[in-house]
Design brief:
The chain has 23 helices and 8 strands. The chain is mostly helical. α19 links the parallel β5 and β6.
Length: about 575
Amino acid sequence: MATVTTSRPGLPLPILQGLLPLNRAQIPADLIAGLTLAALAIPEVMGYTKIAGTPVITGLYTLLIPMTLYALFGASRHLVVGADSATAAIIASSIAALAAPYSGEWLALAGLLALMSAVFMFLARVVRLGFLADFLSRTVLIGFLSGVGAQVALGEVSGMLGLPGGGHGTIEKLIAMARQIGQTNWVALGVAAAVIAIIVGSRMLSRRIPGALLAVICAIVVSWHFDLASYGIKVLGPVPSGLPSFGLPAGVWRWDLIQSLIPTAFALFVVILAQSAATSRAYAARYREPLDENVDLVGLGLANLGAGLTGTFVVNGSPTKSQMVASAGGHTQLAMLTTSAIVLLVLLFLTAPLAYMPGAVLSAVVFLIGLELIDVAGMKRVYAQRRREFWVALVTGATVVLVGVEESILLAIVLSLAVHTKHGYAPNNRLMAPNAAGGWRLHPVKTEIQAAPGLMIYRFMHDMYYANTHVFTEEVMTLVRSASSPLNWFCIDAAAVDDVDFTAAAALRDVHVSLADQGIRLVFSQLTDEVKAELDRSQLTGLVGADAFFPGLDAVLSAFEARPAGDGAPGA
């Protein structure tokens, strides 16, 4: 794991790492970036509530207490924490069979999931499991987020058409839409099209223009002036003002219910960890700043604890919102604290106009969010560079659309581990031979090249463990049998080996015995001290002899050329 350091110098406790030290000259830029983020993020988080199935006001709540808690206790100076489409989709899919969307019970279950996710964060911090972020590969994450984007975008088409909709999964929603297509509300479709045109048009002019906010304001004014509700368009209706209530979710504290939600909470934990860590690392590397991902777990855990206790849903580190702040010139969590202050003012004084917002507006905003998540360029890069991993990403994305988000994230974890295991299970090993410049060159095993007549140097390109010992044994014995010149020495170059487990050590002993029976001496080069100690404990050193270990390839070649005539393997 690429943790750079623990805490910043001068801070006795791991707090305010995203804020201090504060450069006075940077404060105006951070304040402007916070204002820009508020303008761009407010309509976006309201759209996420449509995915999560929670009241619109809960989207604003995610930018209040959760964002503030992360700004104070998180480790990254740049990561923006708030509502997220992927986690919102996981929530909705997991509790769809337990309650009705937008109901009090639904919201309580969403809050419970936020608290359970926070517990996973805190547990991961205690046992330092920040490295788990590495086990959701970039390839699988591209496929997963693209699948979520497709699912989200397709699910909002009915809303843009003004249809009643229905069904839980993507396929059921599409079937329901096809049956209702004759009921299309053309006014709703016109409103949705206008919103999309304003947002897309503003982005073409400048990414800093708050197109979504402009579209929302225009739609609210038009809806109020022309009474769009009289045209059969659904509007939000009264939106509560003021601060969120503070307390535990009510009516959901049953052990059987908690048990049933543990897989979902763990899936949320993995997504939050993977996406947040990837974003934090990217900005820490860009600005050459320290980052402790285990401390970051505390910030993320407290943010979700705050979400669960203030009546909203899971929050996550957002790559898009983080980029919004960076593009606007923000460099510290002061920008996020500014956004929270602006949201506080909106909650206290500006919720009344939201009652006139047409539902088609949110559908259009969410539709565009979904399209942005579909990473076509990323999928093309994976296809061009790693064809097998492309199919893994495609299967993950298809599972989101056809089966469900929760199932797909579990599949994504399994596929990521499978891809990782595949690299170690079948390593691309090499043979070493001198080149004309006096150095060494790697050759494919199939070339069967010898470093010198009678000497073959075989580099194993991975740790040696139980799953790849069969590859090691088969390749070595095949090379020995098909050698163009009879072998006297067979050298295993361990420059890429960091560990040798019990099974692999046994395989090495078997190979030694087999080679010795054929008069071939087994030697080793470039072993680390740890691997050498493992071979000592496995009694292999005593078998091959203490003089069978060399510091480098040149030393192996020199010793081979200076060996006594007929020197092969010692007695087995």
